[in-house]
Every structure is written in structure tokens, then in C-alpha cells.
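so i finally got all the pieces together for this one. its two components total, 1159 residues if u count the protein bits. some of the lines might not be protein, just check the labels. i wanna see the whole assembly predicted at once instead of chain by chain like last time, that was a mess tbh
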Amino acid sequence: MTHDLATLLIQAQNEMSQAADEAALELVRVAWVGKKGHITELLKTLGTLPPEERREQGAAINQLKVGFDEAYQQRKAILKASALDEKLARETVDVTRPAWPNALAQGRIHPVSQVTEEITAIFADLGFAVAEGPDIETDHYNFTALNFPEAHPAREMHDTFFLPSEDGERRLLRTHTSPVQIRTMEAKKPPIRVIIPGRTYRCDSDQTHTPMFHQVEGLVIEEGANLGQLRWVLEEFCKAFFEVPQVEMRFRPSFFPFTEPSLEVDIRCRREGGDIRFGEGDDWLEILGCGMVHPNVLKNGGLDPDHVQGYAWGMGIDRLAMLKYGLPDLRAFFEGDVRWLRHYGFLPFDIPSLVTGLSS
Amino acid sequence: MKFTLSWLKTHLDTEADVSTIAKALNEIGLEVEAIEDPAKDLQGFVVAEIVSAEQHPNADRLRVCMVNAGGAPLQVVCGAQNARAGLKTVLGVPGLTVPANGMVLKLSAIRGVESRGMLCSAEELNIQAESDGIVELPKQTPVGMPAAQALGRTDPVIEIAVTPNRGDALGIRGIARDLAAKGLGHLKPLPAPQIKTGDIKAPNLVIEAPEVTRGFALCRINGVKNGPSPAWLADRLTSIGLRPINCLVDVTNLFTHDRNRPLHVFDANKVHGDLVVRRARDAETLLALDGRTYTLDQTMAVIADDRGPESLAGIMGGEASGCDEHTTDVLVECALWEPLNIAQTGRKLGIHSDARHRFERSVDPASLREGLEQAIAMIQDLCGGIASPLTIVGQRQNPPALIDFPHQEIKRLTGIEMERAEAESILAALGFQTKPTPEGWRVTPPSWREDVEGKADLVEEVVRIAGLDRLPKTPLPKTTHISQSQLTRDQIRRTQVRRSLAARGALEAITWSFIPQQDAKMFGGGQPELALINPIAADLANMRPSLIPSLSRTLQKNADRGQTEAVLFEVGQIFLGTKPNDQVTAATMVRRGTSGVRGAGRHWLGHASKVTAFDAKADALAIVHAAGFPAERVEIVQGGPSWAHPGQSGTLKIGRDVIGAFGLLHPLVAESLGLDAETVAAEVILEKLPLSKPKPTKAKPALLLSALQPVHRDFAFLAPKTLKASELMKAVTGADKKLVTNVDIFDVYAGQGVPEGFISVALRVTLQPLNATLSEAEIDTVSKAIVAAAKSVGAELRQ
């Protein structure tokens, strides 16, 4: 390249580096390689030159053009990048401001539903189905068929809510889930393995009693069913439910009209402040009542007690929830205080399963 | 049921201490509820002798005593009138707590004189309700002896819960028998009663109502001297919280608790004519021994004389014929009453007497003669007198039960291996007679165990005494190696709906199954057959026909506490009638204020708007979807039930079946529920959603994907306000059933540019080409068909 051409390139480079943005750079490009640009004009002069000189000059101008293009591309990239930087800087928002609230995350499952599912998961694994029955029962299913004699004190121990009689039979709100034992025996032949969770009612209200509460009943009627097996089932259940490696249970003779023999079951525990630990300590806590299904109840369910045997137990779901999760006051279960529900409730996807562990 | 250790020991020859006895009681089914040690409160208080008692220099009513309690003499200031030299009394020293009032004793100066303790009254020591002056102990009481011992307060009181089947354990002798069978000692034999009889005639006994009694025994004792009971008897009654009255009455109370043998005594000279067991006459009254007058009716049984009822049979005696210190001739009644009648009468009159408690459970029928003889002997022993011969009438005894009890039954029901000899000896110790048979025994229960009816009861008897710790742990066999689903699809569906609604941001509440009657009526319930006869409160009286009223009120209650941003749901039973099938499961979601699905309240990104019927509609369809039913197959009909705003509510239908409703609460309903913000609700009855038919295979249908891109076209129509969006959309969809695959409304506008009575509705229509890309001409044809279809329902294309 001749000295003149080299000077021209430097001049062009200077102009380009002085261009502040892509628009200014475009003006420079047009001024040099546009239709009437300096380099374009130079190329036009080639035709007037003798062939020898033309080749030489042509190559030189071409070199100038290549040099120009290179510098142009470089400058253009720089300007483009800085333009983007500026744009991005302009678009900055304060991300420390609050986002949309996660309203969906507020949802919770009530402890009674959660614990019912936990109980169901354990017993389903042992082959128990879930049986259900109506809350409005007849005197027959709630008492008579369960071997409660008329006006017996045992009947009075159940503070019963009554509804008006219909078709000559007294209606009431079931005082326990046991009527479903009879309904199950009527509907299905042994072998029977069911649990019966549900709402139950007694007209009683104080610190530890609410007029409505939840029970879960268990019923096994099959060959080999005896109190020894019941003991195993209850111990395995308590271990699984309370998620402890061992539990110790104490069986005491008791009385329920619908079981014979009847037993009450205590579980060994240690109380610390408001906490209860199972499987350790020197305290005993009563958790359930159980026994062999009374021969009269089997008869009332259409079964022959000399050849068929079974056992049953019943416990409070609310109480199990209180013991496991440290819920202090039964009455709060049914008050619907959203602060309580948020605090003691469970996340919708904490689905109890023996695979993932009952609780997270 | 309360008793003291020493009282128990009158029947049980044992060396066992109170904790051993308590453990055994729990093991045999007599659950210990409390053990009260009366010595505990008196710990530290000792017997002291007042050596000298001088007038206090600065107070007229105080004395300065020098007291000897075994150590160096102590100076104590005392205000009691009976504080005198030589008196043995009880001293409390600084640091001890006065049982009656919890005051901690301190070294003090009283009116300038130092006092190193307190001389105590029986009231202060909590052994009498009131007392005059300080305790006066017998002269020979040794100084320094613990006060508990000197006052005879060392006897622990045990309280047990007796189950309804164990009437026999409502007598201390019955408890002793159980403990003896458990191996804690020997049951002491009862002495044969010695009775002095003479030529005395008891009144005639007439049984007019044989159905209420199983036997009535009577004896007259003449020439008794009634008055306060001897100390042993009074103390025994006091020890379990009973008030001694007079010797004759105290004997009956003793028998009630000692033998589960309630008795009654009449003053023979206050009874006129024959004694008749009969039904009361309507509106007859009786002033009973509790000082209250009861109005009777003909369902109740009384013992009456010529003047009328003298006693409420088996429950409580009458004041007029009661025994007092002037009684010289007494009639002793020993009867057996029908438990059912006793229970009903007691409940009707609200009387909870010790006699009622026992008669409605069970009293040993064999105790009719034996109990009366024992009582006469004790009365004669304490009060003297000569007895008439016993009169026993109306005795009805059930034949003794004979129970075939196979030895194998013990193992069959419990899994416990037990030798024949062991079972036999337990039964014998409990008073059962056994006759061996090839399989086991033929057993006759004792007369006091009428609750034992069959072999299962006998199994309970032997295992409760043998010990339930012998129960083996026998694993329940698995029915399948890999666990299978045990839930019905209805049960699974309820769980899925519950969890879906929680995932929609709502809190699950559990509300009462019974609600106020006015609420029930507003939501289609309130029928008389669904009203509780004995509700616990007026606002918990009617079985709920809907979950909306309780959830709405609960949201309001939370708002009143400042918790305005929450959504509640419940999946629970509602009651459309009293039959089992009338109980169905409602899934209900309630929102109020601005609590929409995106959240509530104001936010810098955008404020939440007030909830509308469309929030509730979305919730309703979410419930349907979560229950596994295709939401698009649910028909939405304008207008909901009467609880809803008639213009802002809808009904969900599948075919002819109404499956639920949604909408804004009617302003009158909201007002009646006390709601102070707009509230919307969605309620779906889960059982009304058909379950899909189970398929033979789990495989899903093949996925058919078109290679051709769908085409979207927007249309704006001018429609009369009365035209339902669903109609317009249906018409447009029908314009070309093959090509039109979706129609959506993306804008609705009324106002400037739109004539009165009309709205502008903007639709986006999706066309899915079938075989080849659509040409402009084809699209044009479809568009024309769409416009025509819209026109057919009254909507004009906007120009």
C-alpha cells in the first residue's frame, strides 16, 4: 500500500473510533464505502490507469478496503455490546421488592384427616379395608345389637344425642363407630379385616370432651383371631404410628358390653413438659379399649360364636393426633381458627405412606 | 368406690402394702383412680404437751405457752381458749404448711412475744370441717408421736372405678374376694349372725307390684337404743367421705359399702298399717331423706303405708318414717329391686344415691335373708332390742346358670396356655363351682355374679386373675405378600378432593355436624326429624344440610380476629334425611373479601379484586376435576339455590342430576349469618359424580397428533345482554363441528360504542385443519358460517 493509502486507512480508523454509536458508525461506513464513498471513488479511478499500474493500485486499494472492513466489524461489535449494556442497565428492576404472594402455598390438611390417612396406611398394609356407616343410627345398631341391655348403666355412660323416632324406632347420633361392626357382618362373610374411622357424638362438653369427635374401630373376624393376635396388631400399629422402634403396652381387664373378655390398653411413656415420649419412662397412658367380640354381637351379626371368633378395638383419632403431634386442646380441632389450621395443619403433598415414612 | 386399707383388711387377711394392692387391683380390672394418704398432709406435725400457759402481757385473748414436744421446751403463743397446762395437743413448727389453708409456719413475734410454732385445731389440720379450740388428745398419748398416728390418720384411702358389670365389687368384701383370688391373702369368713328373737309382729307386707321387686325381707326390732354410732363405725364411714347420722342409719350405710347390700330402716312407730310395695300414683309426693320433695308418677315404685309413700323403692327413704335418736322400734328392710325400674326412676328424678347405683347394677339375690340376718345381728349388738321373725315375700330367683366351659376355650379366645388345675383354682377362689366334663367343666357362677352368662365371661374371669401379661404376641398372617389397595374409589376420591383443595390454597376445617336451626332452614334443611331432641346448645341443634353456613361463619369469626385472608374448605357429611343413604359427602369451598386463588389484598404488582361468582365457579369445577370427572361434561345452569344471589349463582348438572352449586351468598342470607364482607361458595356432592367404569386394562387410549398447525381467528359480536355466553359459544362451535375445536371469550365490553341493552363479546376460535393446510377461501367459508351461526342466536358481527 502506498503511503497515501495507508494514511487514508488511519484516517478512516480514526473516524470509526470517534463514532459514538452504531448510527454514527453507519455514516462513516457510507462516507468510505458507500456509493460515493472515498474508497468507492478511488476504485472508480482504476479504469483510467494503465494496466500495469492498475493491477498494482487495484491490489493496494483492495487491501485498504479489507483493512477498512476489519476495523468496521471490530468497531461495530464494540458499539453493539456497549449499546446492549446500556439497554440492560436501563431495564434494571429492584428484585428485592416482594413477588406475587404464593397464595397456593397457604393450603393445609386438617390433622384429623392426616392422622386418619396415617392409620389407614398402616392397616391397609396389614390387609384391612376401610368400612363406613351412617352418623344417624338406630337404637338397634348403636346399642341393642351391640349387647347393651335396655336402660343398663352402660347405655347411660354414653351421653347420647337423640333424634325424633321414626317408624317406631329411636334415632340417635352414633356414640361410637361400633355400629359399623354389625353393618359389616351383615354385608360380608368372614374373613373380615376392617378399620372403621368416623365421626361420633356424645352430649358432653368440657376441657377434654367435645360433643363431636372421631374414632377408629378395628374388627378382625377370622380363624385364629384371639387376644394374643390382637396384642401383636396393636403393638405393631403403635410402633408404626408413633414412629418409634419399640412400645410397651399394658393390658387391663375392663368392661364393654360388646366384647368379652374386654380390655383396656395403656402404653408406656415419659412426659416432659408438654411432650410425651413413647417406649420409655415410667408413666402409663390409656390409649384404647378392646376385646374379643361378644358372642351375642356375633349372633346379632348373623354369625355362630361357637365357630367364629373375632376381636375389635376402638380408639380416638383426635386423641392419637394430640399425642403424636402435641396438639394441646381438643376443642381447638373444631373451631376453625385459621392460625391453628396453618400451624398444626399438613401440606397437601405430605401424603402418608409407609414407603416414604408416615410423616415428614 | 372408696375404701380404706384397714377396712379392706377386715375382710382380707393380708400382709400386702398399699402399692402392691393397687397394682393387683389394676391387674384384675378394678382400676385404681386415686390413692389418698391422709398422713401426707400431717407430716412433721407432732404430739406436744403444754407445760405451762400464762396470760400474754399485751393481749387479753392470747396465752404464752411453754410446750414440750420431746426436745427443748418451746415458747408458743396461742389464742385458743382450751390451751391449758397439761393438755396434749398437736404442734406445728416453722417450715410446715397448715393443711387447711396452705399457710407456711414461720418463727414470729406475736404482740411482742416470740412464738416458735403453732398449736393446731382439728379444723386447721383438715380433719374436721369446724372445731372449737386446739386438738385435745388423750392424756396417755406419747409426746413426740407423729400427729397422723395420734389422730388415727394413717389409713390410706383407695378409690377404684368399678365397671357396670361388677356390682359385687361395689362392696368391699367383693374386692377382698378378688384380691384373695389374685393371691394377695385370704378372705376372712363371716361370723354366723346371732339374733335374739321374740314374740314380735312385723307389719303385713303386701306386694301389689310384683314386677318391680325380686324379693322383700323385713324384720321389726323392738326396744333399740339409737344414738351416735360407736367411734369405729363413725370413723369408718368418715374415712370414705360419708357423714355418720345415727347408729341405725349408719349400719345401713355400712352394709351398702361393706357388702354391696343396701338396706333401709323405718321408725316402726311412724309407719301406719301394712307396708305395701306398689306403683306410685300420679302426682303423689314424697319428702325424701335428702330434704327434697319429689313428685312421683305411676312408673315409679314406692313402699307405702296407710298414709302414702314412705320410701322410694331402692333409691331413697322418706323423711317422715326415718329413724332418729328417739327411735325405739325399727323396721329393717332388705329387698331386691328390678334394675330397669330403678334406673328409669332414678334418672327421671335426678337422684344419684348409693342404693340406686347398686340396685341398677346388681345386688346379690342370695343376700336377701343372709344380709338381713347380718344386719339385725349388728343392730342388736350396737343398739340392743328383740327381733321379730323374718318376713320374706315375693322372692323370685333365677335358676342358677350352668355353663359348659371347654378348657380349649381359654386358648381359642386368648392364645394363653393354661393348665386345667390353674383355671379350676381361679374359678374356685372367685366362688364359681366347677364340675369336670371331658372337654372342661360345667360351671355354676356364684349368686353375686349374675353378669357371668357364658363361656367367654369365664375366659375373662380366669385370664384377668391369671394376668394379662401372659398374652402372647401372635403375628397376624398376611393375606397377600405385596399389599394391595384397600380403599373404595369413593374413599380415594374424598382424599384426592381434600388434597387438591388444599393445593388450591385453602385450609381444611372440620366443623360441627349440627348447626343452628335458622342456618339449616336457609340451606334447605331444618326438618323436624333432623333436629336433636337434646342438643348441647341451641346453635348446635340441627343436622347440617350444607357445609356453607358453618364455613362462612367461621371465616367471619376469623375476620373478627383480624385474620381476613384465608380460604376454608371442608369435605364432610351432610344430612338430607335420616336414612343411611341420605347422608352424603359435600366438598365445599368458601371465600370472602378479596381472597381469590392468586391471593388477597393490595400488592404493588396489582390489587386483588373482590371475589365473585366466577371464583366460586372455578372452585366448583376444580372439585369436579379433582374427583376424577371431566369438568367439561358438567353443565352450568344460570341461577343457584335460594341461599345464593339469584343473578350471580349457578347450578352444576350432569344430565338431569344436580351435583352442586356455586355463587355469591344472597344478601339476606349473608346478613342472617352475620357476614360483613362478600362471601362466595362452591359446594359439590361427591356421590353424585358418576365413577368411571373400571376398564379391563390400564392402558391409555392412543395419542393422535395432527401434523398441521391450528389456525386462530378472532371475532367480535354485538349481542343482546340476555344472550347467554354458553349459547353463543355453543352456536359458534356448531358452525363447523369438524374444524372448530375450541371457542373462548377473551373480552366482554359494554359502554361507549355499544348500544343500550347490548354487549360486545370477543371470541377466539381455534380451527384444526384435518387433511391439509386451510386455504384462505376455506377459512373464509368457515368464518361466514360462524358469523351466520352467531346471528342465528341474535349476535351480530361488529363492524
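The first strand of chain A starts at residue 129 and ends at 130.
Chain A touches chain B through 94 residues (CB under 8 Å).
anyway lmk what u think
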